[in-house]
Amino acid sequence: NSSTWQKKKHAAAADKDDASNPDLDEVEERQPLQCEVGDFIKVKQTLDEAVVKAIQGIDYNENYYWDNVKILLMVVACAFAMVAQFFPMEFPQSRPLLGVCCAAYFVASSILQLIDTYIEKDCIMTTEPKAGVDAASSGLRIRSNFARFQYEYELIVQKNLPESPASTSILLIYKYFTEDGWFDEDSFEADVAKAVRKFEVGKYD
């Protein structure tokens, strides 16, 4: 409610004042988040980031395999671009080299686009397997959908395997944001944890 968020805002202001006092104990507290609720892109970004925090908070470690692949491809593309730009060879002798560099840059960029379009799609994160949970022995694949001008955030939890069963939860964003845009991150993360537990016990769509 509004009184709760007023307390959180005052607490956040107090934390800023206390940060300059070296005699106070160092206590790490979560700062309340605020965003424009009419900015659907920002709202989805805020919710997606909170989902990642929530899942990491229940002992799932993020799998960075595809992130690392994309970084490697970007490095390769940039390397070919730099060779094409700065290699000490005069034109037109450098024409074959420029052709190779342009082709390699195009291939690397195309692979990046294919990964985004056909592999990651609407995926927020993938995780490593969680010890002791059979339902997630292959790790989790977490996806989200948030249609423009809608207030239903769709969270999909499934195994990180092709064509695996999924468990879908609908989270209504007005339960987690005040009219001023203050985000109740704790309540949202608790509901995300419930959605993951629903998947773990085999409650699929």
TrEMBL record:
Chief localization: endoplasmic reticulum
Region: Disordered, residue numbers: 1-28
Entry GO CC: signal peptidase complex
Keyword Transmembrane among record annotations: yes
Localization per record: Endoplasmic reticulum membrane
Gene Ontology biological-process annotations: protein targeting to ER; signal peptide processing
Membrane topology type: Multi-pass membrane protein
Keywords tagged on the record: Endoplasmic reticulum, Membrane, Transmembrane, Transmembrane helix
Transmembrane segments: 71-91, 97-115
Basic residues bias: start-end ranges: 1-11
Protein origin, superkingdom: Eukaryota
InterPro entries for the chain: Spc2/SPCS2
Gene Ontology molecular function: peptidase activity
Family label: Belongs to the SPCS2 family.
Protein function: Component of the signal peptidase complex (SPC) which catalyzes the cleavage of N-terminal signal sequences from nascent proteins as they are translocated into the lumen of the endoplasmic reticulum. Enhances the enzymatic activity of SPC and facilitates the interactions between different components of the translocation site.
Protein's name in the database: Signal peptidase complex subunit 2
Organism: Octactis speculum
